[in-house]
Design goal:
Blueprint lengths: L14 H14 L5 E2 L11 H12 L12 H15 L8 E4 L2 H12 L5 E6 L4 H8 L3 E6 L10 H7 L4 E7 L11 H13 L3 E5 L24 E6 L12 E4 L2 H12 L7 H12 L4 H20 L15 E5 L7 H12 L1 E2 L1 E2 L10 E5 L4 H14 L1 H9 L1
Parallel strand pairs: 1-10, 3-4, 3-5, 5-6, 6-7
Antiparallel strand pairs: 2-8, 7-8, 9-12, 11-12
Helix pairs in contact: 2-9, 3-9, 4-8, 10-12, 11-12
Length: about 400
């Protein structure tokens, strides 16, 4: 038999989905499992969004449509970005995709040649290095360390830039740490990008989920509009995870490449979901602010409760809906702790190493579940914490 393409040997999966698969196995065996492994809000789109979807179907909007997306949606996204991020972008520079992962994949495919180096945050979304390797690129991690408050260190990043460096990936607010990059950090990252002529992929999928202050896109900084691609979508800010709607904002010269890739892959995104997305962006009922307000309450209670667990240390995230817990003091590995929590307590969480080598001493919990569910999860973990309490007490 002929072998598979060599890229399949270097690409990796996602730890969250692996844990989820095992958790579902346990559920099929009759076990009660609390799912804190997936970044999926427990909210649903507003009634107005669902009504817009039904209306679009009733009106026959279920046909092939423009490759780059329905013009009305691209216009609505441009207006939305102006309203929420003070970005002045033209609708012509926006390409709709069936999910943020596809948007990210297509952007990287359009930009990466074999041997190109891609700078990306570690810990970070596992797709960054995986896609880079699959395209023949070289992933170069820059660390988000606790001693630097989980912020990128521009000096470290500068030291890793070589003549082969082509792309800088940023993610603020970040998965899995919840870090929102400071103005000083973003300004220096922008300066490095301009100095070394780097293209920037700014992953802004959590831009609306922040707990204080005003979000600032990296595209807002001097010299960045012509070199920045924004990856965003509807999954997190509008609780539309299963709808698979994402988009890329790109410089004019890159838009045609993204459209060419769309023509050769997914052709177009479902027309009726795009019309519903227009309603979501308008958010007349304030669904997104209400959801984020609820996340803020959960964050406060959940982080407090996690810090009650022996050996767990966690600071409140500035954005997204993840608790990034340092477990060094337990004396156990994150993988073993996650195994105990899942198999013995029925709580699914992800070992930090799934997000990169810098995450080895951490565990990620999603707090996108109800307060009652989060409280029950903590109580279950406390009941099995005897497995490591002795180690903590001896320290």
């Amino acid at each position: 038999m002929r072998p598979l393409a060599s890229r399949m040997a270097v690409m990796t999966g996602e730890g969250a989905l692996s844990v989820y698969a095992r958790a579902k196995e346990l559920e099929r065996e009759g076990r009660s499992i609390i799912h804190l492994e997936l970044g999926e809000p427990d909210f649903h789109p507003s009634i107005a969004v669902n009504d817009a979807l039904k209306r679009a179907l009733d009106e026959g909007k279920d046909r092939y449509c423009a490759v780059a997306g329905v013009p009305a949606l691209r216009e609505a996204i441009a207006a939305y970005l102006q309203r929420t991020r003070k970005l002045k972008v033209l609708a012509d520079y926006i390409v709709i995709a069936p999910g943020c992962k596809i948007a990210l994949f297509m952007a990287m495919m359009a930009l990466i040649d074999p041997g190109d180096e891609v700078l990306y945050p570690d810990p970070g979304f596992p797709g960054y290095p995986s896609i880079t390797l699959g395209l023949g690129g070289v992933p170069v991690p820059f660390e988000l360390s606790a001693h630097n408050h989980l912020q990128p260190d521009p000096d470290e990043l500068a030291a890793k830039i070589t003549p082969r460096s082509k792309i800088l990936i940023t993610n603020s607010p970040g998965n899995p740490t919840g870090t929102v990059y400071t103005d000083e950090v973003q300004r220096r990252l922008a300066e490095l990008a301009v100095k070394h002529d780097l293209l920037v992929l700014s992953d802004e999928i959590y831009a609306r989920v922040i707990y204080g202050g005003e979000y600032v896109s990296l595209m807002n900084y001097p010299g960045m509009p012509e070199r920045t691609l924004i990856i965003d979508g509807f999954s997190k800010s509008f609780a539309m995870t299963g709808w698979r709607l994402g988009y890329t904002v790109a410089p004019a010269r890159i838009v045609s490449a993204l459209q060419m890739l769309a023509v050769n892959s997914y052709t177009c995104v479902a027309e009726f979901t795009q019309h519903a997305a227009i309603e979501a962006l308008q958010d007349r009922e304030g669904a997104t602010p209400r959801m984020v307000g609820e996340f803020a309450k959960r964050r406060e209670h959940f982080i407090r409760d996690l810090n009650r667990i022996p050996g767990f240390r966690c600071s409140p995230p500035e954005g997204a809906f993840y608790a990034w817990v340092n477990i060094t003091e337990t004396g156990m590995s994150a993988a073993e702790l996650c195994r105990i929590m899942l198999e013995e307590a029925g709580v699914a969480a992800i070992p930090g190493a799934a997000f990169g080598a810098a995450g080895v001493d951490f565990i990620r919990f999603s707090f996108a579940s109800s307060t009652a569910t989060l409280q029950e999860a903590v109580e279950r973990i406390l009941r099995v914490s005897a497995s490591w309490q002795g180690t903590v007490a001896a320290r």
